[in-house]
Amino acid sequence: MVPSVAALLVSHDGGRWLPAVIDGVRAQRAPLAAVVAVDTGSKDDSAGLLQEAFGDVLRAPGSTSFPAAVDLGLARLRERGEAPEWVWILHDDANPDPGALAALLAAAEADPDADILGPKLREWPSLKRLLELGVTISGTGRRETGLERGEYDQGQHDEVRRVLAVNTAGMLVRRTVVEALAGFDPQLPIFGNDIDFGWRAAAAGHTTLVVPDAVVFHAEAAHRGVRRTSLTGRHTHYQERRAALYTLLANAPGRALPWLTVRLAFGTLLRMLGFLVVRSVGEALDELAALLSLYTHPGQVRAARQARREQPRADLDRARPLLSPWWVPYRHGLDFLGDLVAAATNQAQDVAERRRAAAAEHAPASYAQRPSQDDDDMIAADTGIVVRFLTNPVALVTALVVLVALVAARTAFGSIAGGGLSPVPAGASDWWRLQVETWHPLGTGTAVPAPAYVLPMALLATVLGGSPTAAVSVLFVAAVPFSLWGAWRFLRVVGRLVVFTGASRWILLWGATTWSLVPVVCGAWGDGRLGLVVVASLLPWLAHAALGFADPAADRRWRAAWRVGLLLAIASAFAPVLWLLAAVLVLVVLAAAALVVRGAVRDRSVWGPPAAAIGIVPLLLSPWWIPAVQRSAAEGLLLDTGRLPTPTADTLDLLSGRLEGLGAPWWLGIVVVALAVLALLPRATRIPVLVCWVVALVTGVLAALLGTVTFDLAATSVDAGLGVLVVVLQGALVVAAAIGAVGLSTEQVPWRRVVAGALVVMAAAVPIGGFAWWLGSDPAIADGIDTDIPVYMVQSSEEGPAHGILVIRGSVEDGLTYSIRRGDGVTLGEDEVINTTSEDDGFSADVQALVSRPTTATVDALGSSGIEYVVLPSPADGDVAAVLDATTGLVQASAEDRTTRAWQVDRPLDAGLLQGPASWLRILLLVVQGVGVVVVAVLCLPTTNPRRSRP
């Protein structure tokens, strides 16, 4: 006996798919007892097509949900007096294969216990890509199909098996089962009703099978957002996520409900973070809205759970074996991270690869016949990574360069201090405290904000286990290798931009190595100038990101803006003068572009990205910049970071890339200048070389202007910071020389080989000489910071700010200076705070009185200021020592050095004067900075869409 089957087709604005679907229904090899069509307020010709094909069409309003439409169809069958054994549910975007129904019925006959059967779903219109072969749900609410993304149908899943649920697109279900389960849940109007129905059916003891021989082609119009209705709205993801959470909470066993409630809340936060990382802000908000819609209306879930308990023979544990394994969400998390890393890696090809592809279409025949480097790489890939490495001289030399750099940086392994580098604090918490404090107990107390680089240093130290020592060591050890990597990437892209064939790997190696050695040969590395070392390491990466401004796609130019802005903010935190140079360069480049290509900069997508990149920096660094100006410490925005005095640079230093009195021999830098001048000769690369020279010229002019500026600080007078300009100028000349070498390699002139040979010798001398000098140098960071204060006093000062040490140096004849040591002394990050703090005139008057005509009130003032000891380091001035010996309230203290004199203040110690008011402005700026960093970081990341791509 042939079982009776009624097809129930639900439609809403499906006119584009219905003709094929109607043909598919009519072409079924198995007979249909009846066809019921329900149209839910279609605005296209869907109802007319159904009327013409099947005669009777139920018309319902557009707000009718899918469960309600199915109920209407079943009611119409009852009205007709028809009681089919099976109901075949179809969507208007689901086209069944002619043998689909026959295969489903055959499987039902083979397994009499089967109550619900579903087909293999394949993508429409691709027809070959698998969508579903049964479906289940994970503990986090993810719809699980067990298929790989984009998996094609090759018969690899063609076995009938039991599943939790099948899609309603093509579901064959016994009519009595639908009625016994009260149909689909009306709380799931469009999404998730298939899983909920299958879960309830399994709990009631019914069997659901997937039948791969039955094939239905599904367009998934609602899921992909191709079709929007009043039920889906514009927030499809919200509806899907709410359905998933509801299904879990309504069907989970009661004992698991408390843990599930907490897990879903925490999981939603993680999912929101994931969507923000891939710049899907709307979907992140949908996640939160879906969770709140259920958690703020718990009555919906309670009613659903009550209805399921009243279901006959209900046992929720029956569905447990059909649910997704517990480890699946963790696998998806790893897949997501892999996708993100892959997207971030692949984006590096952007401008150069597209230009190279475009140039290949118009390349000369000689190029077309010449095997590309990529082809060589593909051929060599089969020989193995180890063999390729050992037979590649460039790879071997590169590895040798990195190894030599690590050996030369051996001094930086472990704790380092000396030169311009202060000792690090005890833990990362000290940097965090310095970052968030609005008033610092340094000296006599100050509201000058912590320098901007404290935040990235605190973050790095936290990542490295809370060790500031490890953070500083990593920066100094990895400076050259990291810069080498970035310079190679940048020069490779530039080489492909200027010449179709790209730069030779030997040229890339020379340019990258020479550029990476700039912080070493200029003297910044050995002198402990942390700011310059970090900027030199980031500069190639910053330049690489800036290449995105030349991308023809406006979206990519804006993406480049966020990346450049973030990198520039980090670099400017360590060397604030860099932001000023970047702003001037942007103005110069935009002005030149307006003169060369009139009207080009009128497009906001042309001038907007570089302007945004410049504007982002003050926003991200506002907790430092604005309070610094407010506290009369604005000079800190034009100074190099580190201990005073900071090195300066004259004209020769700028040209040779050296800081005053530091660095490798000056002639190494002059060789780079000569190579950069000769780089102007090849015609093929003259324009990009001129661009490098423009950067160098602008840098030199700015250095000349800043060289005339001097700041009078409380301790001494210093010049504006020129260190970062030395680094940038030298880097521009190195790039110019590398580009010129690329151009020379393409010149077809008789004397090319002779000139090239001479230039190779000159060029090779630069990195070789730089490494030789570095290996034999004696860096100041290995010397440490000597203290002439007795150890027991240092240990006492570490007990708190109230145990300060007043250190008086000099003599009456030459002049006296003083400083105050508190805690563990001046550590990295505190130099800039102390250097830019204005002199405390009241305390200076007390010190002056102390060394001339001290009174009891003077000594009392010392105790009130938290001064426990007074020290005259060797050689102590005898006149001052005699005055202090006779001062009431000062008790002589022992000193390790006979020529050092020390006294203890015999007065109650109080650090109350070190306390200052909280600055709500800076607290607000810190919040703005935190939000800004997160937003900009998200905008920098590549966009990936975890949902299936739209057809």
TrEMBL record:
Which UniProt keyword terms apply here? Membrane, Transmembrane, Transmembrane helix
Show the SUPFAM superfamilies listed in the entry: Nucleotide-diphospho-sugar transferases
UniProt-listed InterPro entries: Glycosyltransf_2 (IPR050834), Nucleotide-diphossugar_trans (IPR029044)
Which ranges does the record mark as transmembrane?
Answer: 394-413, 458-485, 506-526, 532-554, 566-597, 664-681, 688-709, 721-742, 754-775, 920-941
A Pfam family name for this chain? Answer: Glyco_tranf_2_3
Protein's name in the database: Glycosyltransferase family 2 protein
Highest taxon, organism lineage: Bacteria
Give the source lineage, highest ranks first. Answer: Bacteria, Bacillati, Actinomycetota, Actinomycetes, Propionibacteriales
